Amino acid sequence: MDAVFVLVVTAVRAMLSFSMIGERAVSEALPLEWSLPMRQSVPRHVAIIMDGNRRWARARGRSVRDGHAEGLERALDVLRWCRDLPVECVTLFAFASANWSRESGEVRDLMRLAMRAVRRFTPRAVEEKVQLTFLGRRDRLPRALQDLMAVAERRTATGSRRLRIAIDYSSQHAIAAALADAAPTPSPEAVQQHLTARLGSVDLLIRTGGERRLSNFLLWECANAELFFSDRLWPEFDGDSWQESLAWYASRDRRFGR
What we know:
By secondary structure, the protein is α/β, with parallel strands linked by helices. 50% of the residues lie in helices and 14% in strands.
């Protein structure tokens, strides 16, 4: 039987099993229901563009602040979804450098939410042995947020898996910095080492909200990534959506030019 067909059949069985399980946590369901070939097809590095918080809130007559707060809950779910899977790194796009152009009130709320997020992520990361790190510029962030980020990185430094949160992040800026560090003889290998270190490139990029673009996020690291675009707004992206993205990834034939 064709190997790709086997993977697709396995994915369908996994999703059917999940629907029968109901409210059980995805982290409990996947290792029990996925066959060995499916587990071996799980991406090592997943990146997520968490888009759609504002549209989700406005469609329900709620404040933008509420939308971002609900989006934080989904971000916390990612830790749970990955707990028993061989995903080594997740990178979340929390705040783009371009987002400074939003209304000052929304930016202020986002900075407060970022502080709340770091406070909530840190103890969970310690408990689950996840190394928490941050990408992007820090000099423009509130001092209190910078301090929380530094404490989080120290407390989780020995984690065996990694969760990276991009705040005030621009991939173009990151690439320019990598080129500068690699001077006077920059090479693709040197830039790759600067940007990804031991993490490796992104295997699967997920973007919610219906848009089909990278929005200046991990442009170098996503050179060979599989791109999964979901029409669901980020607060709607649940365990079923997560399973769907992994099943889709497992069905891909990644040839890398071969």
